Amino acid sequence: MHIYNRRIVTRNFAIAIVNGVITLIILLIAPLGLTAVISNTFLVTVASFFTATFADRIVQLLQSSASVPEVPLHRDIPYSSQLDPRSSHEIEH
Fold it and tell me: Cys-Cys link to 19, which of 24, 25, 48, 58 (CB 3.0-4.6 A)?
């Protein structure tokens, strides 16, 4: 479970970095001051990380509550991978 959590945090961090870089590129094109560009980029990065983490928690909650047991198709017939032999009069022409 620890490795799974580490992968989730790494993925969320990668999402946040990508969103931060995209924001940085967009804001560098706009006529803003350097302080505004840096602070907005930082805020978008942090918000992306926490949004991805929150979304993971919701998905995890929904998956744990939606565990439905598997229903067999034919309860009275045991499963067999073998074919049953048929006589010639059972085969339709």
Answer: 48
